[in-house]
Amino acid sequence: MRGDFLLKDQVVFLNHGSYGACPREVFEIYQTWQRELEAEPVHFLGRGFAPVMKQARQDLAAYLGADADDLVYYPNATQGLNVVIQSLAENLPLVAGDEILSTNHEYGALDKAWTFVSEPRGVIYNRVELTPPFTTAEEFADRFLAHVGPRTRIVYLSHITSPTALRFPVELIVKRARSLGLITVIDGAHAPGHVAINLTEIDADFYSGNCHKWLCAPKGSGFLHARRDMQKLLRPIVIGHGWRTTPPGESVYVHEHQWRGTFDPASYLTVPAAIEFQAHHDWARIRADAHVMATYAMNRLIDAFGEPPMSPPTTDWWVQMVAAPIGRCDAGAVSTRLYEDHTIVIPIIDWGGRTFARISVQAYTTRAELDLLVDALVDLVPKFPHPSAKAG
What is the per-residue pLDDT for 388? Predict the structure, then answer.
């Protein structure tokens, strides 16, 4: 399917997880929406905006197993979760000694967002160190929730992590956290299009995800989902015309958060086309094939470097993206040389005192590209020792 995407032919793109890649036909629909906006901007934003956005929300909600009135489009999960983080800090409110329980596997920008609201209030942002290997969902939940204390107010973790590419058992953790009276916030940045999602079954209080990563929608398309009974805690970061002007019968949550001043909604309006593209191409089969290929690459790297994996190689723990362990090395130097010498785009990650190649396998990835990666890593890793080894 390489020809279905707009990626350069000469680049070995094994980093779909960072920003995604949009199929050609989906991108053309995106540009059609942009042209429609520019052809008649006053009509589009003044009269046509509400109905087309409602349809786009309904299509995404159906895909996610949610109600459209509980879902608002945001440019990305970071912005959506910032709404949650800053709203909870003010409106619970969070006070000195309260705790947010999280893990050491979370995305750095959101660690900063929690720290931003915690430090001035004397709130504890507890990033529990959960060290691999992991075996079962129950074992993981037990280890994590054993850290719940008398002042824990919020549980925050990723559905699929950024640095370690692990799929956490969020359904189980949300259920158990709610039984303890805790608020649950889930970072689903990597989940839509990557794993099957039913937000009603997950039942988190707040869940934010991206559509421009694994769902292959245009850049700048994400969402924030909030349980109906928790929406009253949220305040829009940008106050626009939607505030306190919700028409009768419409969702206050949607109305206050959807209109944030003049903007280009084309990426949101294209999400239904991305959903349709994946349905047309039997994406469940593509995900399954990608998992097989990622397992192949990971096993080759395990054989080459002798490093143990973080989890069993099942889709319970990862699907199309895997952090494959390699020898300890200078991650930045190896990543640079992979691109400069082999045109391979992939993050090499230092985490937990180990080094990993975070491999993304998508519909356009070939086994030959994975072999090229493995051979290049076998050559480069010994040449660029980790700075700690050089210092020693």
Answer: 86
Alpha carbon separation from 16 to 22, 162, 192 (Å, rounded): 10, 12, 13
Q: How far is CA 77 from each of CA 66, 175, 186, rounded to the nearest angstrom?
A: 17, 22, 10
Q: Token digits for 241? A: 């015309």
CATH architecture designation of domain 26-277: 3-Layer(aba) Sandwich (3.40)
Which residue, 159, 128, 158, is CA-closest to 143?
Answer: 128
Closest among 63, 16, 13 to 219, alpha carbons compared: 16
For range 137-148, the mean pLDDT: 98
How many whole angstroms separate alpha carbon 157 and alpha carbon 159? 7
What sections of the chain are H helices per DSSP?
16-19, 24-39, 41-43, 49-64, 77-91, 108-118, 137-145, 170-179, 199-202, 252-258, 266-269, 271-280, 283-305, 331-342, 367-380, 387-391
Calculate mean pLDDT across residues 283-305. 97
pLDDT at residue 142 in the model: 98
What's the fold here for domain 282-391? Aspartate Aminotransferase, domain 1 (3.90.1150)
Q: Are 98 and 151 in contact (CB under 8 A)?
A: yes
Domain residue ranges of the chain, discontinuous segments joined by +: 26-277, 282-391
